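Q: How do we represent a protein-ligand complex in a form that can be generated token by token?
A: Start from the inputs.
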Amino acid sequence: MLQLEGKMKRILFLALVLFVISCDTKPTKSIDIPSFDFNKAFTYLEKQCEFGPRNPGSVGHSDFSYYLKDFLSDLSGKLTVQEFVYTEPITNIERDGKNFIIQFNQEAKYRLLIGAHWDTRSVSDQDESIDNQSLPVLGANDGASGTAVLMELCNIVSANNPEIGIDVVFFDAEDGGVPGQPDTFALGAKFFAENLPITKPDFAIIVDMVGDKNLTIPIERISYSIAPEKVKEIWGLAEDLSLPAFKKTIQNEIYDDHVPLWEIAEIPAIDIIDFQYPNMFYNYWHTQLDTPENCSAQSLGQVGKLLVSYIYGSTHQ
Ligand SMILES: [Zn+2]
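Then emit the structure tokens for the protein with zinc ion bound:
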């Protein structure tokens, strides 16, 4: 039957047209990426500073720990508080530490840890004024900024169930170390890595000092040696999102919470950190100038947007 009826011809023609159209359309996955409210994140930075310095042993440390626990308890995730006792290297005083871990989408096999330290430093030993050096740091950037990003991220993940498992960890006892002795820092992360209270995550991202008004985030060298492909992917994503703070240059080695996660628990881990606060000519890090005035909501927003896009828009393996 070679001759087709007119109606049949029209059906075949239509089918052919539809076939061509469908072949021409690139397969796309529609992804809804929630937005990161950077102004709200900044209110969390300011709120932490209202408690005063939050170095272990201080009233601010104790008060904020209760505030954070209440905040996390209102969310949909499973909260674990990991308590430990340690000797603070810089003061040689015994302290109580608390890591807060909140897990979202507990059934998911692939798990991403996102961490920051919530404690602040008990001395301003980098301050130019000798009188200031014995005072505790307020930690708007060094402590509150990463914590603020994580708090807003918890709001988002709590309200928008991700495909992967998300373990958000607020580490304590990061900033009580002795200068020049890197492994006296990050003791909360060390305790966590030695006593994993959750299933071992597949990958970890630490954020620290991300509130600087003059935000610049090059690639931290240890992160690149631990997980070069992840670093390329994440800095590539920052480029796709046109986030100006992120620079594709490898710079300093920073001993931060990512190092014990990798060295002790073998969790591939990277650090998103701006280690020039505010720039190469001035220094607010570990001084009395680490205050909210020297931080900005937009800076928190760049890091928050990157993390949200990474969680909801990337393929994880
Ligand atoms: Zn610090």
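The CA atoms of residues 1 and 68 lie 78 Å apart. Residues 48-313 form a domain with the Aminopeptidase fold (CATH 3.40.630.10).
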